[in-house]
Amino acid sequence: MDRWLRSAVAVLGLTCSIGVGCSSAGESKPGPAGGSLDGSADAELDAHSSDTGSGGGATDASGETGANPSPEAGSDAGIDASQDAQGDAAPDASPDGPGPESGSCTPVVPAPDKDAWQMRLPSAGFGGIVTASSGGHNDVFLKSPTDYIRIGARLDWGGTVVFFGLTSNPQSNVIDANDTGRELQIALYDPTRAMQQCAWNASCQSSPSTCGNSITFLGWDPVQGGDECGHGAPVLSYGQVGDGLQVLVQPLQWNPDWAKPDCTQSSCGAQGVPVQVQYRMVFRFVSEHVVEVETEVSSQESFSHPSTAQEFPTLYVSHGGSVPDLPLLLDAAGQTVGLSTPGNDGFYYDNFTSPGPWVTWQNTASNYGVGIAMDQGVRDFQGWRGDGVTAPYFHNVRARVAFGLAAGGVVRGLSYLALGGFATVQSELEKALGKRPPFGTVDSPASGTTTTYTPGSPIQVAGWALDTDPVAQVDIQVDGVSVAQLPVSGNRPDVCAVYPMYAGCPNVGFAGSVPTDGLSSCAHLLRVVARDAQGNASVLGERLITP
Question: Model pTM?
Answer without folding.
Answer: 0.83
